[in-house]
Structure formats: structure tokens, C-alpha cells
Amino acid sequence: MPRGETSGEAAGGSAAAWSADVVDHRRTVGRPPYEPARSAQEPLARRGDVRILGTVGAISCVDSTGRTRWTHRCATRPNAAHLSGDRVLVTTDSLEYTPWGNLGPALLLDLADGRLVAELRGERAAARGGERFVLGLEGYDVFDTWEYDRDGNRTDAWRSYGHYVVGTGLRVVEADRQVPTNGRVVRLLPGGVVERGPRLTDPLPPEPLVLRDGTILVLDGGAVRAVGRRLDSIVLAELDGVAGDVRARSMRALRWDGDRVMAVVAEQHADEPSRCTVDTWTLALRRRA
């Protein structure tokens, strides 16, 4: 899901304002540390007393009392929802394998009654202000992000795709699945302009974390990198023992553990792919004076 900046510290957001220490490193052997499955009652999105729920074949809007305002039937499995104004954009997984894998349609719905406004195509999305959305897709020479208005009309397009960070502008932690990667952290500007920031070494970085001042934390191969609002970048920590070949890894994740950051790298065993060596680093963040 897209990450959002959580405060109005617009003057901040410099990567150099942060430092980090590795305070713990653990190694275990076992199954990959998958994220727990989302329960049917866990909202895909919420705003005020509005909650968007998704189950196989249905998208529902529920209020804080549990009353269902509407249900939209679909032939897919909803996986994420994004609210902007009086619209909700829901990305879905197909129940059958397609040339695009399990990619299902992205459904733009009227938040008032669940009416289908437009059926779009994309894997990841984010809500912007002014009842606008961005929707992206990668594969088959597609590496694109498109902007849509409240009626599903395309209003802009960029040659970029990855994890979206919405705030003072729109930044992308790119994921191109190419080795060597051409991915960067970029900013998308009006008119299809892509402002290029620091290069990445990981072709498929995990979902980033966003600090209160808008600084992005990226697990980039064997390093945790900070990227500021102006796309300035520093390496906060090198993770000892991470294999150089990112293709060998089955999973990477960056997570909050209270006010600390956990970086997780799970590498499959060549002779037993169902087992992994799982390394977990705990980082203590500090803001420089």
C-alpha cells in the first residue's frame, strides 16, 4: 500500500538529519516470516467513520456502528483500497491465472452508493488530493504510472513504477525486477516529468517506511538508506552478512518495532527451498541536533 507523510514538517525531510545504530542482529532457520493474513473484518481503507471491507467477490462500505452502507459485487479478490473525495479505488486479484498473473481489474467506485464509475488496470495505486488517483503496472515492457480523475479519465502518465509515497508531491521507490536494476527513488511531476533521485541496487525493494518529516527509509539490498524530500540520500546502516546476489533472497521487509526499525532478510536454502535463513536487524534511529 502507499505510504503517506504524517505531519506538516514541510521544511524538514533531509536525509542527513537522521542517523541509525544497529542494536541487535538475530539469525534463525525456518520458514519465511510471512506477513499475517488480513482478516475479513480488517478494513482495506478507512476515513472518519467510513470503512472499506473486501472479501472474495464483494467490496463493502461500512460505518463505525457496523452498518453496511452498500456492497459492490465483483468476480475478484479485493486487496487494497484508496479513498479520495467521494471516490474509492480498489485494486483486486483475479481468481484465475491470466497472462498478467493474478492481476484483476482496478475498480473506481462512487463512495456514496458503490456504483462502478470505471474499470481500470493496475497493480498498485495511491490516492491524491482533488479526487485523483495514481495507478501503476510493471511487466511486458510496461513500467508505468497513470493519474486518473474522479470519472476515470486519464490526466497524466509517467514512465515509472514501484512503491508510492504521497505527501508534498508524489515520490516512487522504483521496482523494475531487472538485474542489474535501473531503479531509483524518483519524484513524479506534472506533464509526465520524472525527477530522478538516488540509484538503487535492489530490483525489488520491499515497501518503504516514511518518517514524520517525510524522509523515506528504503531497504536497498544490504543497506538501509534514507531519502529526503529533495531526493538527497545517505546510507544509515550496512547490514553485515547479506548476500550480494539479491536474486537469491525470497523475502525482504522493513518494519516498525515500536520506535525502532527492523530489517528482515530471508534467504532460501538451495537444497530445501521451503526453509530459509532469516536475519533480523534492529536499528535505533536518531535525529541529529
Description:
With 289 residues, this protein is mainly β. It has a single domain (12-287), classed as Lipocalin (Beta Barrel). The protein is built from no helices and 26 strands. It has strands at 3-4, 18-30, 45-47, 50-55, 58-62, 68-73, 76-84, 87-98, 101-103, 105-110, 116-121, 124-128, 132-139, 142-148, 154-158, 162-167, 169-174, 184-189, 193-199, 209-210, 216-220, 223-227, 233-238, 249-257, 260-269, 272-287. Strand 20 and strand 21 form a beta hairpin.
What is the gyration radius calculated from CA atoms?
19 Å
- How many beta strands in the DSSP annotation? 26
- Sketch the major β-sheet: 5 strands, mixed
Mean pLDDT: 91
Widest sheet, order of strands? 1-16-17-18-19
Residue share in helices?
Answer: under 10%
Global geometry: globular
The total number of structural domains is: 1
CATH C-level class: Mainly Beta
Number of helices: 0
The CATH architecture: Beta Barrel
User: Approximately what portion of the residues adopt beta-strand conformation?
Assistant: over 45%
Biased composition (Low complexity): 7-20
Region (Disordered): 1-45
